Amino acid sequence: MADEIVAKHGTITLEQLAEMQPGMARLMVEYSQRFWTMYYAAKASNWALAKYMHSEMMKLGRIVPVVRPKYAEGMEEFERDYMGPLLAAIDGKDWTAFEAAYRRAIEGSDHFHDKFAKPFIRFRLPPDPPPYLEFDPDARPPK
Ligand code: HEM
Questions:
Q1: Is 10 left (phi over 0), alpha (psi -120 to 50) or beta?
Q2: Cα(97) to centroid of ligand 1, in Å?
Q3: Could you report the per-residue pLDDT of 114-132, keeping only the tens digit for each?
Q4: How confident is the model over 74-95, as pLDDT tens digits?
Q5: Structural domain boundaries enclosing 51
Q6: This prediction's pTM
């Protein structure tokens, strides 16, 4: 019998548990959302928020070799060539460098989607920041 674990609502097999882990498509939705947010955080000089989004993207990247090893090398390359310069710009609080690195990273995402036979996937920066987050680093709740 397959290894089973007892979960709150019944038993599940390790295979079922593995099957439920997010694949690339699900990881990419969160990756995009954080990438989108990172842009507007940097634009608002909310460098702490930009750095947080960057770090969460890197954490997502660490899941890739575990769940989808065939993309591991590509992800490593993307992180080296595009995420590295973004982090340097965030650490330097340098908007000009950040924006240039960000535009290059979008081109990088196109490149990797082409490389992995997904040329119909093209991330494009939304014209506005996500509406549910405060971007002003000094904001306080309205009285
Ligand atoms: C900032 C960089 C990136 C962004 C914003 C981005 C964005 C996206 C988006 C929006 C999707 C469609 C998700 C959906 O709705 O199903 C997607 C899918 C995908 N992305 Fe990315 N991506 C990036 C980098 C990469 C890199 C570096 C790789 C490869 C190493 C990659 C490989 C893929 C693959 C393979 C899919 C298709 C999912 C699947 O076949 O299961 N992406 N990406």
A1: left
A2: 24
A3: 999 999 999 999 999 999 9
A4: 999 999 999 999 999 999 999 9
A5: 31-115
A6: 0.96
